[in-house]
Design brief:
- The chain is mostly helical and about 110 residues long.
- About 85% of the residues lie in helices and about 0% in strands.
């Protein structure tokens, strides 16, 4: 249940970011974006919106990854097929690798 809430929160942050970007572009910048591009990109408001965008995407990504891992392990338990030691080791290695790569890219 908490994973669904986190996925919704991440999507909500991304939607907020896109809504503010589109409103800012329509109302404030208009057709002057090319003239004020460097000012916009180096401004604090653009940086703050970038935080919302990155935070929303990462929350959704990590929550969906956790949900997928939870589903795989639940299906294994329900089917009665326990993972062998080697399979558990490979799954653990893949999870750690994905987390480290995504943390390194963020």
């Amino acid at each position: 249940n908490i994973l669904r809430i986190l996925i919704c929160a991440g999507d909500l942050l991304t939607a907020f970011y896109l809504l503010v970007i589109s409103a800012f572009d329509t109302v404030i910048i208009g057709n002057r974006y090319c003239k004020s591009q460097m000012e916009w990109l180096s401004g604090d408001f653009c940086a703050a919106l970038g935080v919302f965008s990155t935070l929303g995407a990462n929350i959704s990504l990590y929550s969906m990854m956790c949900l997928s891992i939870f589903r795989v392990t639940s299906l294994q338990r329900i089917s009665g097929n326990e993972l062998e030691k080697g399979e558990k080791l490979v799954l653990t290695f893949i999870i750690i690798l994905v987390v480290l790569l995504s943390a390194g890219l963020a």
